[in-house]
Amino acid sequence: MGGDFAPHATVAGALLALGELDSAHTIQLVGRTAIIAAKLDTLLATEYAALKPHRHRIDIVDAPDVIEMTDKPAAAVRGKPNSSMMIGLKMQSDGTSDAFVSAGNTGAQMAASMVILRLHAGLKRPAIATIFPSARKPVVVLDSGANVDCSADELVQFAQLGAVYAEDILGRSNPAIGLLSIGEEAEKGNAVVKEAHQLLQSAGLNFVGNVEGRDLPNGACDRGPIDVVICDGFVGNVVLKFYEGTAPFIIGLLKQSGLDEKTMLNALKQLDYSEHGGAPLLGVNGVSIISHGKSSPRAIMNAVRVAVQAIETRMDEHIGRRLQEGAA
Amino acid sequence: MGGDFAPHATVAGALLALGELDSAHTIQLVGRTAIIAAKLDTLLATEYAALKPHRHRIDIVDAPDVIEMTDKPAAAVRGKPNSSMMIGLKMQSDGTSDAFVSAGNTGAQMAASMVILRLHAGLKRPAIATIFPSARKPVVVLDSGANVDCSADELVQFAQLGAVYAEDILGRSNPAIGLLSIGEEAEKGNAVVKEAHQLLQSAGLNFVGNVEGRDLPNGACDRGPIDVVICDGFVGNVVLKFYEGTAPFIIGLLKQSGLDEKTMLNALKQLDYSEHGGAPLLGVNGVSIISHGKSSPRAIMNAVRVAVQAIETRMDEHIGRRLQEGAA
């Protein structure tokens, strides 16, 4: 029920994902049954008719309440226990599902994930990991919005979360971790970043030092490629949204220049981070994938694929282990 | 002597600026006399021969010391009193020059500007203002790197500095000021931003509330166009450098797509913030323009134009007055 284009984008995205995934995977669509069933019928009778053979892999799970985009997270968690958000996450703690994907209210998804799935032992805060397209391989940026004021300890834990994510979901071995700052020298940055820099040097990670804003689109710093970039959720969110706003701006510039629109849109599609799937809320026990409210069916499909990768690689277990090692 | 392409870019930029500016303006080139004179002769004998009639508007002022990009700011200020940075700024406090432009060591320029020009009365910190191209009019972003940890009071002062800059240099009347945050609601943001939001509501400015990362390339938020965006220097620097890195990345994407390179480069030139001139260090008594180390002659020329505009609009005086009013 969540997201600006629900239920169309979520139901269509689920169908697309089933078409791509191994037949062992099934999807539970959680929300108002009548609405979901009607949407599913319409899609399978029209645009998505080719995916009819996958209909039996979908279960519809009723959830009468809907958390609105404007609901306050804590109030939504307390006041709407029968929302698709709460029921969908509870299915994971009950063992009837393995992962949760939503394009709904991000704050509510964070709060509900923390309440229902709980955090890994020793972890202070969860973090949202986002994939940034780059000139080289995509880069994982975290936190991209879960926490506004972070301590140095929390940034180090984000590095551990991000390393596991890069290994499991992006298949990077010994991922290179950069700390986002305003200069590559250890003494550059704000107080928290300078402290985190010191802590990261003995955190048992492949820490490559500070990276700068320009290294993000480049996918590398002077010392080589970067897989993961660590920052607090304020900076991460500002940069992420800035990036989102840049592609439409550039398309506008190119249009004015009179080039063929279709070719350019294709070239710039790589800039669309939704192509890379949803952003997992890392640190909760389980899988909770946060999709953009403006997700298209394709973006939802990609979010489901990320969820499946997280399950298959046992990312959640790896995070638990990594955090224990980090604390030991 | 400063910048990655000095003295070529600085001397050539000065010539280009003289070609564009009113004939009343003159330029003092401060640095090692022999090097500057030789460069000037070469340029006027070749590529810039058309600008020979402006030669008499250039004075060369000898400064034997050179501050390197790797020098620590405080040490450079103390240890190299005869550097082009120190001598160039002192000419302003002596009344023999009206503005200072440099593409050298930014930290040293900040430190030297604060020591020699001093801050306006009541001001806690200076800020670097950068112009971001946008889908609408360019947007002033400050602080873009002078201060890593800022208090709410400091952010409010940056808003005052930015308002004057937008009025005097960009010709905006009653400039719309946005506070960079992670949501438009007043309660969104980190602790400092939330406090600054409250203070800005009664600061006597045209404060339009919080703006998000995506509003920057857009040049507007939901409530209308934005002229000035306020943030601390950590966030501002990260976003600025991110923006710098995005254009080459996008050009790469478009090249891969096989479009005509020249047309695209022209379209994307608007993304090159150096086209918009140097970034003034706002808050010092006087005019100190910080150019990018990688400045081209064109970027230096634009920085000189910004300096002249600052002088002609009496921006510095306006800032002093605005700060007094803000304190009253």
Brief characterization of the structure:
Helices cover 45% and strands 14% of the residues of chain A. With 328 residues, chain A is α/β, with parallel strands linked by helices.
How does the SSE layout of this entry go?
Two copies of one chain form a homodimer.
Chain A (H helix, E strand, L loop, with lengths): L7 H13 L6 E5 L1 H13 L12 E5 L10 H7 L4 H10 L6 E3 L3 H11 L10 E2 L1 E3 L6 E4 L9 H17 L7 E5 L10 H10 L5 E6 L3 H4 L1 E2 L2 E2 L2 E3 L2 H24 L4 H8 L10 E4 L5 E3 L6 H16 L2 H13 L1
Parallel strand pairs in A: 1-2, 3-13, 6-11, 7-8, 7-11
Antiparallel strand pairs in A: 4-12, 5-6, 9-10, 12-13
Helix pairs in contact in A: 1-11, 3-5, 4-5, 6-7, 6-12, 9-10
How big a fraction of the residues of chain A is strand?
5-15%
Q: How would you classify the helix and strand content of chain A by structural class?
A: alpha/beta
DSSP, total strands of chain A: 13
Which residues of chain A sit in consecutive blocks of at least 5 with pLDDT less than 50?
Answer: none
pLDDT average of chain A, as an integer? 90
Number of helices of chain A: 12
Largest sheet of chain A: 5 strands, mixed
Radius of gyration of chain A: 20 Å
The helix/strand series of chain A, from N terminus to C terminus, equals HEHEHHEHEEEHEHEHEEEHHEEHH
The pair of chains with the biggest contact is:
A-B, 52 and 52 residues
State the distance separating the first and last CA atoms of chain A. Answer: 42 Å
